[in-house]
Design goal:
The protein is of the alpha/beta class and 276 residues long. 39% of the residues lie in helices and 16% in strands. Strands 1-2-4-3-5-6-7-8 form an 8-stranded mixed sheet, sandwiched between helices. Strand 5 (144-149), helix 6 (151-159) and strand 6 form a beta-alpha-beta unit. The longest helix has 18 residues, at 24-41.
């Protein structure tokens, strides 16, 4: 047995979200169409370079009054799925912009071109870039919040020690990378034991950080639920601010609707975080 009583086949299945949600292809196609529609309706600053690599780019969508907090959204795709781009998630800005928040949708280099250390470094650099440049667009650089889904949930957690980050929402993330190192995902990631350990948030808690909401859908794969529950408990045990927020009935993909909709549960949690 490789991990928690699972052999390789069981461990692969335990982290295969696309196979677990049979409607995932349709949901992703719907996101892409809605995102294209949002970009047509809401003019943004697209393809802003925060680094030199082709995918070190972000799209910035400003609220009607740009002098507002900014949400940096980090997409998922298990750090490697090339169909996952910032363009697919423009619609993630719809709810936040309607509530007067700016949104930056962040892209980053994927495996196998980039190892995990570099991916984490790029996302952290994107946050630093926003802090340095939001003022150029009339936004408030001192009020940056981060949210991300799946791999983006992990990357959100990796940004929490940054002084520029006021708070975060980690959605359906993976916080212990050991099972990832041992399953099919590592064929592209190429994690060794040391790299998995230093990029596992479950093993590395900051001495201080802004509040973090750890959230997951109750209809997700059991391993994804376990990762979120365990991480939120450990975060609290280390005396860090934040809480666990299960979204009843949501799966690994439909949970995003609760952030995209202006009246969604995660959207309301974000507003409480910003106002708090």
């Amino acid at each position: 047995m490789l991990y928690r009583g699972m052999d390789r086949a069981q461990l692969d299945a335990a982290y295969d979200n696309l196979a677990a949600v049979t409607s995932s292809a349709k949901l992703l196609a719907d996101w892409a169409a809605r995102s294209a529609n949002f970009r047509e309706r809401h003019r943004g600053h697209l393809g802003l370079a925060y680094g030199e690599q082709p995918r070190e780019r972000l799209d910035l969508f400003l609220a009607s009054n740009p002098a507002a907090p900014t949400l940096a959204y980090i997409h998922g795709g298990y750090w490697q799925m090339t169909h996952q781009t910032k363009e697919m998630y423009s619609a993630m800005a719809e709810g936040a912009v309607s509530h007067g928040l700016n949104v930056a949708v962040v892209e980053y280099t994927l495996a196998p071109e980039a190892r995990m250390d570099r991916i984490v470094g790029e996302v952290r650099h994107a946050i630093s870039w926003l802090h340095e440049h939001l003022g150029d667009y009339g936004a408030e650089p001192g009020r940056i919040y981060v949210a991300g889904h799946s791999a983006g949930g992990h990357l959100t957690a990796m940004t929490m020690p940054l002084g520029e980050v006021r708070g975060g929402i980690a959605i359906s993330g993976v916080y212990d990378l050991e099972p990832v190192r041992l399953n099919y995902l590592n064929e592209k990631l190429g994690l060794d034991e040391a790299e998995a350990q230093r990029n596992s948030r479950m093993l590395n808690f900051p001495p201080m950080a802004g509040p973090l909401i750890v959230t997951y859908g109750t209809a997700e794969l059991p391993e994804l639920c376990r990762q979120s529950i365990g991480y939120a408990q450990a975060w609290a045990m280390h005396g860090l601010p934040g809480h666990l927020l299960p979204i009843d009935g949501a799966d690994h993909f439909t949970i995003l609707e609760t952030l995209a909709r202006p009246d969604g549960e995660l959207m309301q949690a974000l507003l409480a975080l910003v106002r708090g």
